[in-house]
């Protein structure tokens, strides 16, 4: 699997809409878990018990299933539909909700290629897509760990990559500070590193901005959006290594440490936001 495929797989997220049409569709497998019933599996997968029996010879004429059995569950192609953008949503979040890659969503909505922002109330085309019945059937068993996985993907277990390898010194932390005699809120952390040091993407996602932003004091800056509403900023760079609209994988270089904009020395300003609500980056590691 190449890097672009890895990004697309990452951006699909966990959300799937489930249904079934037993025709010439793809099939997937599901291993029966302790406590499962045929009717329960069918209900979670969005199919009838008869449809499951039709593609599993061992089930014909019986209603009981045994833990450890591997059942075949047909997939289906969900029809195209429209989605009205809600407050706090971005393209990555919407793509994950419908089990799409970001590139597939952009292909269906070419107006938003190249990094154009999507506004609340906009209507997007959600293209037809294939949904896995097996993933839905397994959902209750996975539900107990789903919250943990979500937290760990954005928490201390390693879901977030430190953006400057080998340099962990923070010269200015998150929150109120005084700079040049002026009290201000510092929505990020300043990581001290030599000018030219590579800056890496903390998570996979799409580049929202890659430009010089001297009006707000950021200097050369890269802003990325990630699935589940997270946004990261990499500022005061000496060089930007990615372009607006580009899909980037976790750990890929996005720039080099610099001293541009409102800066008191070579460092990386690293900011993290959840739907543009600032969060302390250090709380994520």
How would you characterize the overall build of this protein?
With 285 residues, the protein is α+β, with helices and mostly antiparallel strands. Helices cover 20% and strands 31% of the residues. It contains seven helices and 18 strands. Strands 7, 10, 11, 12, 13, 14, 15, 16, 17 and 18 form a ten-stranded antiparallel β-sheet that branches. The protein has a two-stranded antiparallel ribbon with strand order 1-2. A two-stranded antiparallel sheet has the order 3-6. A hairpin with a 2-residue loop joins strand 17 and strand 18. It is elongated. The two termini are 27 Å apart.
Alpha carbon gyration radius = 23 Å
Percentage of helical residues? Answer: 10-25%
State the end-to-end distance: 27 Å
Question: Which oligomerization state do the chains in this entry correspond to?
Answer: single chain
Write the H/E string, N to C: HEHHEEEHHEEHHEEEEEEEEEEEE
What is the number of beta strands?
18
The overall pLDDT average reads 78
Report the total helices: 7
**From the helix content, strand content and strand pairing, which structural class follows?**
alpha+beta
Low-confidence stretches: 10-26, 140-158
The major β-sheet equals: 10 strands, antiparallel
Basic shape = elongated
Fraction in beta strands: 25-35%
Q: How is the secondary structure organized here?
A:
Blueprint: H1 3-12, E1 27-31, H2 38-45, H3 49-54, E2 70-74, E3 76-78, E4 81-84, H4 91-97, H5 102-108, E5 123-126, E6 129-131, H6 133-137, H7 139-153, E7 170-172, E8 175-179, E9 182-186, E10 189-192, E11 198-200, E12 205-213, E13 219-225, E14 230-240, E15 247-248, E16 253-257, E17 267-274, E18 277-279
Antiparallel strand pairs: 1-2, 3-6, 4-5, 7-10, 8-9, 10-17, 11-16, 12-13, 12-15, 13-14, 14-16, 14-17, 17-18
Helix pairs in contact: 4-5
């Amino acid at each position: 699997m190449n890097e672009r495929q890895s990004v697309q797989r990452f951006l699909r997220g966990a959300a799937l809409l489930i249904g079934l049409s037993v025709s010439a569709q793809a099939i997937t497998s599901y291993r029966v878990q302790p406590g499962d019933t045929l009717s329960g599996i069918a209900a979670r997968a969005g199919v009838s018990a008869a449809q499951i029996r039709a593609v599993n010879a061992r089930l014909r004429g019986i209603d009981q299933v045994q833990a450890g059995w591997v059942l075949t569950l047909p997939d289906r192609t969900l029809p195209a539909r429209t989605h009205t953008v809600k407050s706090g949503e971005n393209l990555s979040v919407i793509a994950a909700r419908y089990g799409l890659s970001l590139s597939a969503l952009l292909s269906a909505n070419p107006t938003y290629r190249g990094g154009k922002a999507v506004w609340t109330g906009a209507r997007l085309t959600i293209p037809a897509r294939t949904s896995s019945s097996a993933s839905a059937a397994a959902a209750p068993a996975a539900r107990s760990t789903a919250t943990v996985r979500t937290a760990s993907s954005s928490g201390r277990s390693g879901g977030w990559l430190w953006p400057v390898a080998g340099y962990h010194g923070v010269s200015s932390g998150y929150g109120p500070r005084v700079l040049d005699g002026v009290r201000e809120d510092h929505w990020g952390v300043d990581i001290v590193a030599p000018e030219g040091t590579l800056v890496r993407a903390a998570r996979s996602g799409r580049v929202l901005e890659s430009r010089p932003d001297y009006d707000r004091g950021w200097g050369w800056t890269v802003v990325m959006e990630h699935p589940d509403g997270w946004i990261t900023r990499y500022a005061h760079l000496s060089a930007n290594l990615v372009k607006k609209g580009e899909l980037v994988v976790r750990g890929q270089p996005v720039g080099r440490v610099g001293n541009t904009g409102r800066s008191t020395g070579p460092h990386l300003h690293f900011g993290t936001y959840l739907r543009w609500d600032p969060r302390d980056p250090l709380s994520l590691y």
